[in-house]
Structure formats: C-alpha cells, structure tokens
Amino acid sequence: MHLLPTVLSALWLVSAANAAEPTPLEKRAQCASTLSIAQGLAQELQNKYFSASSGMYNGGSLWTDANAMEDLHNLMLATGTNEFSAVADESWIGRNALQSSDTGFWNGIVNGAIDDAAWIVLALWKIADYKINRGLNATPYLNSALTVYNIVAAQWDPSTCGGGVWWSTAHTYKNAITNQLFLLTSAVGAINFPNQAPFLANALKSWAWMEGSGMRNSQGLWNDGLTDACTNNGQTTWTYNQGVIASGLGALYAVTGNSSLLTQAEITLDATINLLTTNDILRESCDDAASGGPVCNQDQQIFKGLWMKHLQYYLDRANDASRVAKYAPFIGSQSSAVFHFGTGAGDDVGSVWYAPNAGGSIFTPKTSTSGLEAQVCAAKYGPC
Ligand SMILES: *[C@@H]1O[C@H](CO)[C@@H](O)[C@H](O)[C@H]1NC(C)=O
Fold first, then answer.
1. What spacing in Å lies between the alpha carbon of 258 and ligand 1's midpoint?
2. pTM, 2 dp
3. What is the tens place of the pLDDT at every residue in 303-328?
4. What domain range includes position 209?
5. Is residue 23, in this structure, part of any structural domain at all?
6. Do residues 80 and 382 lie in contact, with contact meaning Cβ atoms separated by under 8 Å?
7. Structural domain total, the chain
C-alpha cells in the first residue's frame, strides 16, 4: 500500500514534468493534540457552512472559499488522513477546474478580480499537492492553476508606477495584496515547475518593483496600496499583507538562496508582532471584543488566519530551525488565544482572538477558516 502512491506520483512526474519535493521542514512531525483541535474546527466548518450541492460556503465568497479549500488540503497533508478528500471535486472551484482550463472560461469566473485569481491559484496548487501525494490525478487542477496564473501575470503593467499587476481589470488600483500574491505564486511556480518560464523572472521583477514601490512604511508594515501618484496611500496595514509578503519572500529565497530576502521578510513579521497585536495576540484594526465597536467586513474577517498560514509557509521555505524557534512562542500564543478566546460553541471560531468574546466577535465561514489556519500553523510550528 505504501508503494502505490509513490509509483503513481513518479509516473505522474514523468508525464507532467513537475511537482515539488517537500522541504525537510514540510515533512516535520506535527503536534498531534493541536492537529486534533484543527480537525475539529475543519469538521465544524464543513458541517456548519459548506453546501455540497452548491460547492460553496453559505456566507462565503470566492476568494475565502478558495482559502478554505487550500486549508482543508493543507490539514490533510499534515495529518495523513483523507476525511475531506471528496470536497475538492465537490467544490465550485474544483468543479470548474474539472470542467475546463480555458482562459476565457476562467476569466468569466475571476470576473476581473486579480487578487481573487491569485488566491485561486494557491488553492488549486494545494489541492494538486494533496492529490499527487495520495496518488490521485491532479492534472485538471494543475492545468487550471496555470491558466489562472497567466491571467494574473497578464495584468503586469510597467506603464503605471513602473510595474506591478493591477488589482482588477478595471485598472484603477495597484495594491499590496495583489502584488504580494503575484510574487508568491511566481516564486512557488519557480519551485514547483523549475523548467517553465517565466515564473522565476516574474518573481524577481515583482520583488524588485515592490521593494522600490514605497508600499512598505517606515515601521516595516505594508499599507494597502498606492495612490494615483504612485506613492504609499497610507491606508490600513492589514495583517494578511504582512504574512503574504513573508511567504513570497521565503519562496523566492528558496529558489535564489538570497538570504537577504529572509531579513526583509522578518522586518515585516516582527513589526506585525510588535504593532498589530493586543496582549501579544493578533488584532485586526476592526476587531473589538465588545459589541457596538468597529466590525470587520466579510474580507477582513479572515486576515489574521492568513497571516498565520503564510507564516507557516514562510517557515517551510526558510527551512531553518532557529527561525522556527524564534516564532514558535508567538505561534503558540495565537493557538491558545484561538482556543480559549476565539472558539465558541460547537468548535466554530469567531473573529476576535485577543480577548474573551464580550459580544463583538463575529462567527462566519471566514472567521472559522481563519481560526483553522491558526491551528494548522501551530500544529507544525508551535510548541506542543
Ligand atoms: C538579495 O535580496 C536583496 C533584498 O531584496 C536585494 O536587495 C539584493 O539585490 C539581492 N541580491 C541579489 C544578488 O539578487
């Protein structure tokens, strides 16, 4: 039984000339008790919010659904179990991947949202990783991922602000998240598909442009994006921006060996820990444990979990035990806060992690997914 998946994935490797070997840290033993907590959260996410008939989460949205798909597969890769193996093909994103990898078809799904497109690429690749690992056919997922990646890459435009991809096909905004995701997907593409241009070239040009873009402020945090005059617009420093840049830089380090990229990543990770927390726990600017205060919108409800997931990916790519030791205590604190403060009835996780819920924590598929991401990260890199 052990040989079969290996043989199949070896055959697949020959046929598609691809698939990354996990780095040593990606194979590292994980904390069983934290994984068990994560499995409980994932089960609740599916039971409470997932509709097998539509393939979507009730109260979800395309890009956060994509993240939930990625997370279920990240979890199964961690546990070695297969309890969510039917979800990919059942999901709306998966059904589309099975239906077509045509560019026009996927343009219709992406509907002009280039950041959404890049999140979909990450989900399709993670599903493919899982399927390859289990000896299943991943080809439709890989083909669709490449199509969607190319949709993102086509939005690179040097004629405004000297480069960067547009946030949407309306071409009104160059922002941090879309460009951070372009760096990340390009660098991961360069790792997974080493002989396929233009992944590495795109990753290098993306970082070169972002490094000079001014979107990272003097505190080390990335603001939301650029003004029409191509200067930092001073808008909110969301947590997810501070995580996705790190995983992009970690992946670029993994392909180039340039360790300055890790230094750059940790400027921002450390600034997050210093500046975007209350009582050492991540706090989005819209988080309020009490009722009647600010309320995170549908997108913002998932941001902290994305910071955690991309810290996990950063540590995978940095592949350095001393860096794991540096971040493990903070990761453990987040795991504990999600467990003690964030988790409500029936294993659903709310939006507020930094303090016990006093009526302000919101419970949605996005917040549930965010909590799951924190626990999956902690199972790998937190204390046990
Ligand atoms: C390594 O990364 C740093 C940080 O971004 C950059 O400034 C430098 O040019 C890179 N070095 C090479 C040889 O590419």
1. 6
2. 0.93
3. 999 999 999 999 999 999 999 999 99
4. 5-13+28-381
5. no
6. no
7. 1
